[in-house]
Structure formats: structure tokens, C-alpha cells
Records
---
Amino acid sequence: MIIQQDLINQLIHLNPQSKLAEARIIRDVATDHLQLAFETIFSTESEHLTQSIQFYLAEQVARKTGSDLLADYYVEQFNASDIQLNPTQYDSALNYVDVIIEKPKQANKALVTAVIESGWHEKDFLLLAQLVTFVTYQARLIEGLLLLNGQSDRSITPPVTAGIWNTVSHTAQGRIAPTAFTQDQLGWESWLNARDVSTLSDEEANVMKKMGQISSEYFLLLAHQSKILELRTLIDRGIFYTPEGLPRWEREYAAAVVSKVNGCIYCASVHARKASHLAKDRKNDIDQLLATQTGEVLAQNFDERLLAITDFSASLSTTPISAYPIQIERLRALGLDELELLDLIQSIAFFSWANRLMLSLGEAYELN
């Protein structure tokens, strides 16, 4: 697969002289590694995931997520006649895909086990999981940038409410599972077999040590596709650990908003805690977000800036995407510049990817 230029810029016809183009260059770590992740995922084939099937699945994901622009690109990359999906091998996998696109909190161990029992090895399954969740990230990034660039005419939609979350008292391994959002530190257990450290190559082990991931069950699971994991980690750092632009606590806060929409208690705990650490005077706001009950509007009772950030973050996180131009206009009126808006969109879009991996590969448990 040969891509002549950055795919995102190509699809949105980004003017190289624009402020948005300049902002994407400033955030070159995230921009460049996003492109590399795209090229790596779609050039990594497996027994069940030929490139044609990968593009077919990507089109389905993009369409359901709400990015027709991205879906139309993917549909041009394969011939329908090449797609042969044996029900015995693919029905459970397609069911898994549908759930993590539209209702990620409904993923469970039985859903994952059904895919493995139909003949998928962990490495193949992790490629599927990364592909699907990556495309949900791409779709939200593209639609957010179209809004930012004045290329979207989406209609105003009602305020977004908090999604459902875990109500089961114990995990599959019998640990106590959290049933409320919290800033406390949580553990996470996998529904699949993570890699043993001894099976990592020297290069894989060195990368994971450098990233601080070598002792994490979650990252050792993702290491079944170690190059994708490396690129994903670099994208994460290019979005959340960069100077200037949107204050870092607001990026972490946006991640917590997305996690409330998707019902990911684990991700919310990590990023709400980071937001509180970075902005200790905003802890009450962050606690209020976490306390929002299922069905209650997320964006309420904050100051004007946090209200606008919450509203947009939640709308860009829905499936299908429901963000609209007036939300960007409000943020601009509150003083957010192009780089800050790019940081916000990337933070939101990335957690579509992160939440769906966490929710569909394992579950959180309490450490106390």
C-alpha cells in the first residue's frame, strides 16, 4: 500500500497554508504516527484479515461511526467480489465488531471467547480489535477537523447524556468490580492471554520498557501486535504530552468526558485523576462530571468554557457522531485558537480508540 501524502490532509483537502495545517505540523508527533499507524495496520495481514477484508471492515466502521467521507475512501480500496466471509469463522467476529462500534460497554468475555473459539488466535484477534478501534479514532478526527475547517453542515442535536456503565459486582476472575466512577486507582484484567515477557524480542522489550509498559497486563496483551502498540503509544504522547495549546488538564478532562459517554470506568479513573492533579482547583468540577448518572446531561452547571468543552467532547463521542458547527463557534468565541481546538479534537478522538480497547478486551477491578 502506497500513500502519496498524509491521508487525513488528503481526505479533507487541507490547505497547506491554513492555520489548521500549521497546527497539525506543530503536533507532528501525533500527525506522523497516525499516518504510520494507518499504513502499518492495513499492511499487516493475517489468516482471517486479508487487506480486502480489512478495508471492508473499515468501511463498515466508518459508516456506522458517522464519517461518510472516510467510509467512501475505504469502499474504494476493495472489490466487493473479493469479500468471502465464511459464517463459521466470521459471524462471531462481526458481532464483536458491531458491539464495539455502537455499544462498547456491552462487550463481555463471552463475546470475545466466541471469536477465539471460532478459530481466531490472539494475534489475529488483536489486529481486528486495533483495526476497528483505530478507524473509530480516524472517523472522529476527520469529522472534528471538518467542523474546525468549516466543511460540515451537521444539524444541532440534543445535549448528550452519560452512558451506561458496569453494574456487575465481580469480574470474570472473581475480583470486586467498580460500579461507580471514581478517581481512585483501579486494576484491569484481560479476557485473553497476554504475552509473557519472556516471549518478547529484545527490540519489543526495550520499546515497552522505554514506554513504561513492560509490567502492564493490558499492554502485554496489546503486544500481540507490538508495532501497532508502539505507534499507538507515540500518538497518545503526541496528543497528551505536548507543550502550549490546550491546557493539559483540559485534554485529560476531555478524555474523562468521552469515558462517561462510553461507560469506561477504568479510563475515566486514570484521566480524571490526571486532570485533578494538573488543576487541583477544578477537582469539584471533575467530581461532578464523574457523578453524572446514566441518562443525565453531561454538560451542565459548569463555567462557560468547561460547559462548551464538555458539550463538544460528548457530541463528538456519540455513535453516530453528533457534533455540529455551532459548538466550534462557541469554543472560538471563548478564545480557543486553532492549536487548542486541534488538541481538543485529538484528545476526544483518541479516547474513542482507547475506551473501546479497554472495554472489549477485559474489565476493571478494585485494588482495595
---
Amino acid sequence: MKKKSFFLVIIVFLLALIIPVTHAKAANDNYLQKVKDKGTLVVGTSADYPPYEFTAKENGKTKYVGLDISLAEKFAKDIGVKLEVKNMNFDSLLVALETHKIDMVIAGMNPTPERQKSVSFSKIYYTGDQYMLINKKDAAHFRKIKDFKGKTIGAQTGSLQYSLVKQQMKGNDVKGLAKLNDLVIALQSQKVNAVAMEEATAKAFAENNRNLKVIDPGFDIDASQTGSAIGFSKGADSLVNAANKTIDEVKKDNLINKEYIPAAAKNMTTNGKKNSMLNYWTYFAKGIEYTLIITVVSVFFGFVLGTLFALMRLSRNKLTHGLAVSYIEFVRGTPLMVQVMFVYFGIGAVIQSLPALIAGIIAVSLNSAAYVAEVIRSGIESIPAGQTEASRSLGLSQKETYRYIIIPQALKNIWPALGNEFVTLIKESSIVSIIGVTDIMYQMQLVQSATYKGVIPIFIAMIIYFIMTFGLSKVLGYFEGKMKHA
């Protein structure tokens, strides 16, 4: 009994020490000072949400614009630092915030009770109603929520609109996608009957597409869930307080209605006038550049690592063999998308300076290595055992046997399979767009959001990928022919 009492006293004593320290840390956090010290405010957003955040072309370069971006620029100016915008999927923003890849999230985000458990929010800076975007030809059929019974409704994953549809339209199928551009394409192609959006965004899409119409379906909105706020890491009170000061000034001068929304509308109008794909060729050119960088580097490291793991798997050493088998099976048993996100958000949480491009290359290289290892292993095992025995009888060491006898013959046998892996790598590299790497897929989405055209940018991306893969296939075929005649 005395022992239990002693431990109880110790626990109470420790809690008494910990609680004040925790409160002191929360009250005197250094988040704001860290941002000032590095001189840059890194803002995460999903730039497919006009008029909040979207892209415009300025002097051939991508520029992030919208009322959210204008507010972020003022906030950065108020605290005396430069603004850096990171564009990624909406449902990846809070993960990026949690792993400190970004300093804040500004993406028309609603401070729902669920989000407030892990995110510190600023004051509400803008409030809009929740609307539906429908095809204009369906306007006579759809007016209120009850009219959509049994229909498919689209909404952005992780958004307030997605939750509203799930809660208040239980007789409907919900199709969630990460990008609003994709949802609009789904609407126009009859994959969904409507898309739930915030009022200003729905009107922006409708104003730039005469085949779409905006309606108010009559969602029952909880006052605590309405409005947009800036998200910060939990406990970043210094940044929250600084942001609130900026928001107070913006509201006092009515800057959102006087300056930010008119500026966004001007950019949207400009985009509408310059929505020819020829005006955005530089976007696709930049995407090709990054896709080639990722592919070439990943092919090199994937081949080197793949060869190493193949030899490890063929080793008689149980530890070496076991490590290789475990790695290969684990990588082949998990999706590349998950691996990319783990490297960027997981490992990147430890290595804060890890750029998205490097993270993408690491993930794709490690993934490719597992498949290359199996291709090389099968090639080596296809060589008759007599080849090894003959070379060893001639006095060649095991290393020399592999280098001069086994590998050259195996490479000739596996070249078609190896070439197929390299071609596949070009297409699979498109996954890295989810962490903000500016490859072809990323640039395609920017063009979609800038031009309000969904299908044409996809078609152009398809053609680009085909040209790249077909060209590589021809080059690989040429070398295959050389090997056959060697």
C-alpha cells in the first residue's frame, strides 16, 4: 500500500512539473520567430479553387493568384518575410502542415471541429454559402437537395462539401476526387449529376463555362463550420496571433471585396481570353523537362540498386538473402503513391530540407529497384549452371564469372523486360505530382485550372507521354537488335 502511495506521489509530482512547462511552451512558442529567421513564409494551397487560389500566366511563367494568395502576400509582408507557395492536392495539405513541409495552409479551408483537433486556425476571413454546380440542361430537374435522390454527387475529398453531401444526402452516391477540375470533367461527362462547391468557386466555373449552372440546394449549414480560415500547426499561437492582426486589418479596410476579389476576377477574365493551348506550351515543356529528369535519374539508380538486390537475393548468406527478399516483397506489395508520400512526408519530417523533386526521385528509384532486381535475378537464373562450372574450371573467380560470363548473357536475355520497366517508369513518374513536383501531370492540372478546359489538356498530356514512351521503345528496340547480332 505504501509502495502504491509512493508511486502516486511521484506521478503527481511529475505532472505538476510537466503541465506548467507545456503551458509555457504553448504561450511562448517560436513558430513566428522561426519564419522570420528563415525569411520565408511557406504556404500550402491547392491552386484549382478560383477565385480563392488558381494560376495565371505572366510572361510565360506560372503565377499563383486569387483572394487567398493576396491575403497570404499581405500576411508575409506584415511579418517582414517573402512568400513561397507550394501547390499540392487539397487532401495532402494538412499532412504537409503536420510534417512541417509548410508553415500554413490557405486554401478556402473551413475550420471544422474535426480539423481543430489537430490544427490551429486563424479567425474567419471570408464566408460563402455552399452551392451546387450542375449541367445547364439539367436545370429544370435539379433545384433542391430532394431532387437529387438516387443521383451521384461529386465533391472534393477532405472538404466541407464532401462532409455535407455524406451527412445530408444519404440517399446519394458520393464521388470524391482530389481536384475540382477533375470533378467538373466528371460533371460534363455525366459521371456525376452535380458537384458541391463553395459559392464563389461554383460561380467562377459557371461564368467561364456556358454549359454549367449554379444552384443553391439548401444545405443545412452549422455556423461553426462556415467560412474560410488559415490553418497552422497545433500550438503555433504566435503565427495565429500575427495572422489575426492581418485579417483584422483586411476586414477593417474591406480589402477582400474592394481589391482581392476584383483582382481575382480580372485574372479569371484574362485566363478566359487566353485559354488556347498554344498559350500554355511552356507549361507542358517544363513538365517534360521534370519528367525526363525523374525518369533518367530513377532509371540509373533503379538499375544499380536492382542489380545489387538481385545479387543479394541470389546470395547463399541467409541474412543478405533475407534482407533482399524482404525489401523486394515489401516494395512490390505497397502502392507507389503511398511510397512517394511516405518518403516526402515521413522521411521529410526528419529531413526538413528534403525537396519534393528529390523525394520523388528517391521513391521512384527505390520502387523501380525492386522490379529491376527480379528481372535481373530471372535473367541470371536462366543461364545454364554449366556456364558457371566451365568458367570456374578455367580459373575465373566468382566475381569474374559474373562480370564476364553470366551478366552479359543475362542482360541479353532480360533486355526486353528491362526495357519495358524503363518505359513503365516514364508513366509511373506521374505519381510525383501529388507532392507538388512540376512534372507533366502537375503542369496539366495547372493548365486545366487556368483555362477551365478539362479534356483538351488531358489529351495533350496523353500525346506527350505516348511520344516519349514510343520513342524510348524504338531506342531500346534498336539496341535489342544489336545484341541479337552480337
---
Amino acid sequence: MIVLFNPRATKPRNRRLPLAVLAIAAVLEDREDYEIVDGNVDDNPVASISRLIEQYDVELLGVSVMPGPQMVAAMDASREIRRAYPHVKIVWGGYFPSVYPDAALNAKYVDYIVRGQGEDTLLELLDAMRGKRAFDSILGLSYKDIFGLPRNNAERPMKGPDEFPWSPFHRLPVEKYLRPSFFGKRTAVHHASIGCPFNCSFCGVHAAYGNKERMESPERTAAILSHLVTEYGADSVQFYDMNFFLREDHALELAKRIEHLNLRWWCEARVDVMSRYSDETFAALKRAGCTMIFFGAESGSDWALKEMKKGISTEQTVTIAERTKQFGIIPEFSFVIGNPGDPERDTRETLAFIRKLKKINPDSEIIIYHYTPVPQPGDMYGNVDGQIAWPSTPAEWASKRWMDFTLRIDTQAPWLQRKTKDLIDNFEIVIGSRWPTVQDIRAPKWSRILLKTLSAWRYALGVYRFPVELQWANEFISLRKPKRESL
């Protein structure tokens, strides 16, 4: 038997379908005995895994691992299983081991790493474990040889979603995952593509999946969403694609195919791509239920965008702010502030640019991060000239310093002066209080009025220093922050 484990990554109210393990389960369905254990639902996943090992002949524990809280949960559970059941092989897959394979493989309790897209790699790994093929022939696999030395095989070419079967939703209590959100009472999630064709210097997606994007056909996407609606009562969906709108013809066809489902939905897109869409396409997306779109605006400085290799301009971001307002779609703009090239200038120009966007479209949601690099292919330091020495084990990544770095709470970036960091953090508090996110469905009306009132004078006058009253108010109200929802 194979056990697929999704370690806890979020609070119960934020849990969503574990798409990563469902994708792996899809290729195991009808060919291997397997069970899914989800730490976001199971209060004691280690006990559940242990019962399966004691009841069945479990030969492999597959663990899906994202950086942050899930990595810590994966580390703790893997260590306990290895100690109690040393004969069970453990394989890690997902974003964390794909971007940091050497660190993950340095853990004594990890036997194999599946990098990037894992469906075919896992099937071939099972064949190798059963003596049917050589480990060194498996693309996308990292492992320890007979001498305990790490081996990293060549990368595996990516396949499109249509080349794999549907997720076996029946294997999970789907009703536990359709949680209320701003978009609906029963919000599902879906991944309609994999990869990203762009090369932003601070992003780890192409480090994990290369610089290609494979799209699911609109017909299949519509069929899966229809299944979630008719079988489980989904009324809304969040698309987890890095670029949901890569091509206008694809977006328009999909909008027409799902309009009848009456879903409200959220997705991610690029400002350069969508700024060129026709009014017809924007109107079709709105009719199809598009409610909010996340855009990586990243900076208010064109020179910083060039250094990031982002491939967009501030003018295109302004265009998106105008057009989303025209069609009644909420834009969610994300910024990574403090570019290592000139963090003070980038901060100054980006804060002014954010104010410009809010004036153009007050409904714009603003998400602010400190510039946080990840290792890049051919540039292992994310465009920061070797100023960061990356941890070499999961245990180091689990330390407070690196957890804060991973979650962008406090990166301790050597190029970011304390006064600049404080300015970014204080501005975030002021603008987040002046325009509390619409996505917090739990916050009472009075709390929003209080925050807006307290912050109005600061925002109007551009006074961001020492916002103590706003810090106290935010702690008292505990308003949801979109970038902190997994904590």
C-alpha cells in the first residue's frame, strides 16, 4: 500500500481540497492500493498513518511539502514515522523539495525527492523500489545511493493536465473542504494549468517547474467544475494557477463554458497579458462569475521591474486598475518591496504608486511583502549576489529566523535597512486599516468603521510612523490578512 500524506498547512476554517495529493492519487487509482491522510482534517495524522502501517503492508509514505508551516509538520511526522517504522520508505514531493532538494535530502528520514511534476516520477519510483528499473533512469528523482550520497537525476519534461486523469474526489470527504469565503458559502479550489512561462527573479515556480506552462482544456475545466457543483454543491471556486489567463482565446472559451454554472471565482493573472484583452472578453469573464483577480504588480518602479525580469510595466498595472473598475472586477495587487538594487528608492516609488492605484480604483486590494528571493536556475541566489546562505536541512528551515523569512514576516534581508523595513511595515498597517480587505467575512461592520476612522488622517497626510493605535486596533479586531490566512 501507498500512503499519501498532506501535512497540516492551515487553520480549519481555511482548509481547501489538497490538490497536490489528489493529483498523485489520480494516477494511483485502479492500479495501486493507497490511502490519503490529510493533516488539515485529521487531528492526529501520525496516529492514522501508524494504523495504516500496522494494518497493511505499506511500502511508501509520500509527503506533499510546501515551505512554512507545512514543511514543519512534514518534518515532525516523517521523523516520527521513521523512528517507529524504519522499514517504510519516505518520499517528499512538492514545492519545498523541488526548490531545495539538497536540504530536503539531507534529512535522515527522507529517502527520495520527487522534483517538479510528480505523477510519472512516483510511478517509476515504485517500479525501481520493486526491482523493475534503475533509480538513475528516473527523471525528476533525487535519492541517496547505496553509499548514502545524494544523487539528482535530470529534470522531467512537463505534461499538461489533460494527459492525466481527474482527481478522485470520492476518496475524500469533500464537504469538509468546501468552506465559506468572500466568494461563496461552499468554495472549491481547482488547478487548471501547471508551470509558468515567465522568469521573475524572486519567484520559485520556474525553479520547480521550468519555464513552460501547460493549460487544461476549457472543456475539461468546465466538466470538473460542473462535477463539483452537481455532486458536492460548490457555489464558488478559487483557481490556484500561477497564470489563469495566459491566452485570450482560451479565457473567452472557458468563460462561455462555465457561465451557466453561476459560480463566483478568484484567479491569478498577469497585468501585461490582461491589459491587452478586449472589452468583449472582460465582459464575458464578468458574466461567467469572475469576482476578483490577483495580479503580481510587484513594484511601482519600472527599473525595479526590469531587474526582477518581471516583463511588465507600471503603465500596464494602471491600465488594469482602470479596466477592472470599468467591469466591476476587484483587482488584488501584490507588491514585493525593497529591491536589492536600491531598496530605499524602490520603497519610496512603490508606496507612491500604490496610492496612485487606490485613487484610480479604490476597490483595489493591496498585498505587501518584503522582497524575498528563492534559489534560481543558473542564479542560486535569486538576484541578490550571494548575500544569503541558504539552510542545508529542513530543521534549519524550521527555525524561527527562516520561518519568518519563508512567510515574509521578517526576512532580515541584509540589503534592507531597518528604517526602510519599518516604513514598509507601517505603510502596510495604515493602508490595510484605511481599506480593510473585503475578504474577511467574519469582521463586523463596526470594526471596519473603527479602522477606517483611526487611519483616515494618517493616510490623508502620509503619516506612517509609529502607528501604535492601528497596531492595537488590528490586534483587538484580528482582521483577516490575505497573505496570512495559512497561519
---
Amino acid sequence: MSTDVPHIFIDISRLLSRARNPIPTGIDRVEYEYVHYLLQNEAERLTCVAFHPIGGIAPLPTHAVRKFLHVMGQVWGGDVTLRSRLPRLALRLTQSVLLSRWTVPRYRGKSVYLLVSHHHLTHPRAIERFLSRHGSLFVPMVHDLIPLEFPEYARPSEPLRHARRMETVSRLANGVIVPAKAVAQSLASYMQGRSAQDHVYVVPHGLHLELSQSSGRLPSRLPADGRPYFVCLGTIEPRKNHLLLLHLWRTMVEDIGQAAPRLILVGRRGWENENILDMLERCPALQGNVLEYNDLSDPDVVNLLQGSLGLLFPSFSEGFGLPLAEALVLGIPAICSDIPVFHEVAGDNATYIDPTDGPAWLKAIETLMTGKAENRAPSHTLHTNLFNWPRQVAAGIAVVDKTAALSSRTGEIDPAR
């Protein structure tokens, strides 16, 4: 290994905390893909670490991390037989933090602590102790600032917690990775006088879509009547604006009955969603016409999207918008909110509508139903390379290396920090 590149401590705390959830969120997938890529391509300069409330941040045994990641990938791919095994593997790794804190020697070479989730950014002292112990630089990933910009869509305690996270980033980070220019612009005002242009780097996310392995089989619970359908992907919460679609579907069903396509909601149930759940469970017009799936595997989601009339994504705010990117790569038409980050992701390959303009959404949906929309499917080849995970992780690691190189020249590294 070249002496010019830094050793990388990558944190897998979020993956460990999510071991009981068989279906990944977008941030889960990001952390998984970064760790997987580094283990496959940069293992000689990699140490996986994790946070424990008592033990702080400490290294983990690489062989155990590989085993955990392999099982997690199988579970996310639909292997239900391994679901009970994953939490046990996570528990052993978490317990090993307490042991390795005292038994692993300090690393004194050039190094970077890479945290690609928001996990434990509210514990800056633990991060500071780790950086001081190893003389490391700190490169976190900030996925969004939604709790600060749109507190009405977050849990009541989340805005304050996110403000603490951003304070940690501003004070300790030597470089910051964000998934979109829109996030970089939002982050700039929280950098406490530091130039965001010099410290913040835009690296879009990749996608985990094994298109060549797609079977084309729809989930077994989907009615086999051949009725057309649209898909909405995302956690069921107010920010995702499911209510807009539910009201539109009630209107369509009342107007045209079974001639209306189905709406399929894919995502776990989130928070403060009582109005959404009331409609799903109690509105007569939606019964059998709107279906909800909370635990689909990655292959099931691919198959579902490929068989759909299109993706509907009326979210009020997003840090990136992985479902939109998924639709682009699959060549599926998408109708989405007219917000800056979606334009970054999709360019001219989506239909943009104000998330509050119900009549415009209904008109666009009806246009796709007739099959008469111009340029119905986005360009496949244009976006396949753009959202390739290995390529995007390599770009993120290039940010790590650049941050280390710049800090070496400016004398920013301070082992006694």
C-alpha cells in the first residue's frame, strides 16, 4: 500500500443498530455499500469500527464484519431464513467494542475516520476521543438537513438533535461528503464561518439494483388479475406526501371504479402518520385499490417497479431521492415533486409537479394511464453509469484521500488533538 494514502477507519454502527430490520433504508444501503466496497477493494488500509455508549468508538474484527455483511446482504436479498441470525451477529460485534477498546493498539499513521451515516454525531466527545487516540482526520457524510429546514415533518425532538449533529460536523470535520448540491447549499450556513466550498464535496449515491438477476415475478401477495398499477416508494410519513396520492386515488375510484389503476405503497410505517393510516385502513374507496407493502426485498422492489406504469414521488423534501434514481435506471417513467434535488437526480428524465397541485398530479397520472405521454421512459444508458455503486463509493474514497492530502500540506493533522 502506498504511504501517500491514509488508513481508513469506517464506522458501521448504523448497520449494527439496524440488524433487526430486514428491509434497508436509503442510509442503511449507503453504509453497507461503502463498507462492502472497501472490504473488497481497499482492505489493506481498512479498519471497521463501531460506537458503544459505554465503550466509545473502537475497532472490530474484520473477519466478523465480513460474515455480518454477507448475512445482511442475503437478508436484504430476500433470504428470510437468516433474519434471526443477523441480530446475534450484530450483538457479538457490538460487545467486541468493549473488549477491543482496551486490547487494540493505537494507530499512529496518517488516518481518516469515515462516518457515512448520522449515527452518534450527537456524541461528539466519543468522536473527539477516537480522533485524538489515533491522530485521525474526520470525514462524515451529511445526508440532509430536513429536520432543521422542515421541522414540521420531523419528530418533535429531532430538530434539536440534528442541530447538535451539524454542530459536531462543523466543529470536527476536515471534509464533508453530501449526496447533492442542494444539501451542500443547505449545509453552508451551518459551517460556522468555515468555507463550505473548501470542505464539502458532492458525491451522489449509487443504486443496488441487480437488474440482470431480476426474475420478473411480482410479489406473491399482489393480486394476479393483471390490473395496471403505480408505485410509491418511501417511509409512510407526512414528508412523503402520501395523503396527496390517497385523495387522488379516492377521487379516481369514485369516478371510474375498477378502471382506475392500483396504487402500491412500498415502505415501512414511520411517525405522525395517523391521517395516512386512517385513510388506508378506513376509507372504503381505497380498499383493494391501494395496497401497502412494508417488507419487500430488493428483488421484489425491482420486479414491482418494472411491471408498473410509473413511479409517483410527491415528497415535500429529500436529501437525494433514491426511488427516483431507481426508476431512471430501470427505464420507468416518474412523476415527482418540483424540488431542486430531484432536478439534480433526474434532469430532463422526469415529470415535475408542485407537490401541492393535486389537479396537475391527476392529469399527469391520467396521461401515463393512456400510454400517450411523450418520452414515456427515461434514457437507460444515461443513468446506469451515473448511479453505479462501486463508482460512487470510489468517488467518496477519493474525497477521503484528498482531505488527507490537503491536511498534510496545511499541517491540519494534529495527533494530540
